From TrEMBL:
Species lineage: Eukaryota, Fungi, Dikarya, Ascomycota, Pezizomycotina
Domain Bicarbonate transporter-like transmembrane: from-to ranges: 3-84, 107-435
The name this protein goes by in its record: Bicarbonate transporter-like transmembrane domain-containing protein
Bilayer disposition of the protein: Multi-pass membrane protein
TM spans (from-to): 56-74, 103-123, 197-214, 234-255, 308-326, 332-358, 379-396, 402-419
Native source organism of the sequence: Venturia inaequalis
Gene Ontology molecular function, alphabetical: solute:inorganic anion antiporter activity
Comp. bias (Basic and acidic residues): 474-491
Length: 513
């Protein structure tokens, strides 16, 4: 039952954003990318990664960054000015409905897009409430996307005054064929390409590699985040190798390059996670009891079937009957997909969490919040660095150099490794910038937990005797030595036992590999 629910949920979570990004590319490339290209790319990635990936939990498909890449390159090749990439693509998709003075269509589309967004949001959040029964909450949360899609698609086709609005629907083309006719159907005639364009494509290919190196591995990490109780190891290197082959195939057939879906990445794992509602009882000073519901993840169904079945469903969607069904879907629903996916990224964003902490009155902050251990000035400084790099990425995407934004994104990696540890203490970074995935089984394919630069710097400071942590440790060792009566044999036994423990950890890591 859980596999079936995850399959249906991921089908809609993967399909709807792919169609939304396809609309964006279709609008900005003069109709070169259509619905069939989006379905082909999504199906290709699903079938390859569900059957051959080391970690099939990671969902791969069409992303907004590839959408930006594709139509920016298209404009460069066509020698047109590079069009601006809006901060909220959902706003752009809705604004299209106001063209040709179709005011009623525009306002009706705005209403449908907003209502679709709210419907999905509240249905997904119902799991964390106390409404209905636990099974009913899970059912509504798992099927939030299909329920909202069916509801508001049906709403747009209600006869009467609503039909006078002429709401724009998703454009479809001939099934199994590319949107733009080609002599060899799907095969791109790359052998006719002038040699000069091969060399022009080289730096662009390097930028795509940088983008995928960061973006795909990030989506893999979030799909295996620390709050999921996973038992099977990851395979980052092999999965990235597979991504290279799917990119080659996508280039030959002329479809958008599939890539790891960052906002949707943890959704698949979440859909396969078993949650248990527990009641925490707190006794107050006046003898009363406060009951609080807490949801705990207990198990993840780690399998390939849900991902594989999702791929089969996407292939089935390329048939004519289901394409006709998709053609009844309002464009406004896909605009709502932009909003809900974007809001999901904002809601769980570390920058937003830090900013909210800074403006929250201290007495209303939970005592268990680890940010309380750090001064607000230090939090503000770290958040300023984050905001500056975010602003730089957005700014470059608004210019003709938009395809160069992967350089900025990947440059943040050495900046974090070499510069940030010189500004912040180790314990501060462990709170402000903890590892996304810290499970031994996940990090096994990387050789274990990475040793960050700040850890090495701290060890060097310890050896020089300049660290307060070392001084504290030395004092503790002296006191322990006095307690043992200066017995050298006792201390040797302790050191020997510590060495055995370290061997045990190393052996366990090797076993995970």
């Amino acid at each position: 039952m859980m596999t079936f629910a995850a399959t249906v949920r991921m089908y809609f979570v993967n399909l709807l954003p792919a169609l939304a990004f396809q609309l964006d590319m279709n609008h900005n490339t003069g109709g070169f990318y259509g619905i069939n290209e989006a379905l082909f790319s999504s199906a290709l990635a699903a079938m390859v990664f569900s059957t051959m990936a080391a970690q099939p939990l990671t969902i791969v498909g069409i992303t907004g960054l590839i959408s930006l890449f594709n139509y920016t390159i298209y404009d460069i090749i066509k020698l047109h000015d590079v069009s601006l990439f809006p901060a909220f693509m959902g706003v752009e998709e809705l604004s299209i409905n106001f063209y040709d003075e179709r005011i009623t269509n525009g306002f009706m589309s705005v209403m449908i897009g907003i209502l679709f967004t709210l419907t999905v949001y509240f249905l997904e959040k119902i799991r964390s409430t106390t409404l209905f029964t636990e099974s009913a909450r899970e059912l509504l949360s798992d099927y939030a996307y299909p329920l909202a899609t069916i509801l508001w698609t049906g709403f747009s086709h209600i006869p009467g005054n609503l039909r006078r609005a002429h709401i724009e629907c998703l454009p479809i083309t001939k099934s199994w064929y590319p949107t733009v006719p080609r002599p060899y159907v799907w095969l791109v005639e790359f052998w006719h390409l002038p040699v000069k364009w091969v060399f022009v494509a080289l730096p662009v290919g390097m930028l795509v590699t940088l983008l995928f190196y960061y973006d795909h591995n990030l989506s893999s990490l979030t799909a295996q985040a620390r709050h999921f109780p996973l038992r099977k190891p990851a395979g980052f290197h092999w999965d990235f190798f597979l991504l290279g082959w799917t990119t080659i195939i996508a280039a030959i057939v002329g479809v958008p390059f599939p890539n790891g879906l960052v906002p949707q990445a943890p959704v698949h794992t979440d859909a396969l996670t078993t949650y248990k509602d527990v009641v925490e009882v707190t006794n107050t000073s006046d003898g009363e009891q406060i009951f609080t519901k807490k949801t705990v993840a207990t198990h993840v169904s780690e399998q390939r079937m849900s991902h594989f079945l999702m791929g089969l469903l996407i292939i089935g969607t390329m048939t004519r009957p289901l394409l006709v069904v998709l053609g009844t879907m309002p464009r406004a629903v896909l605009s709502g997909v932009f909003f809900i996916v974007g809001w999901g990224s904002i809601e769980g964003n570390g920058i937003i969490s830090n900013l909210l902490f800074l403006v929250t009155e201290k007495r209303f902050v939970q005592p268990s919040n680890p940010l309380l251990k750090i001064s607000k000035k230090r939090i503000l400084l770290f958040t300023t660095f984050q905001l500056f790099t975010w602003a730089a990425s957005v700014a470059i995407s608004q210019t003709i150099a938009a395809i160069g934004f992967p350089v900025i994104v990947t440059a943040l990696i050495p900046f974090r490794v070499f510069v940030i540890p010189k500004i912040f203490e180790r314990w501060e970074l462990e709170i402000l910038d903890a590892l996304t995935a810290d499970s031994d089984v996940v990090l096994a394919s990387l050789g274990g937990k990475p040793t960050m630069r700040e850890s090495k710097d701290l060890e060097g400071a310890d050896q020089g005797g300049n660290s307060s942590v070392q001084r504290g440790g030395s004092e503790t060792d002296e006191k322990q030595g006095e307690k043992d009566g200066g017995n050298e044999e006792t201390r040797q036994r302790k050191r020997h036992a510590g060495s055995d423990d370290g061997d045990g950890v190393a052996h366990g890591m090797g076993h995970s590999d």
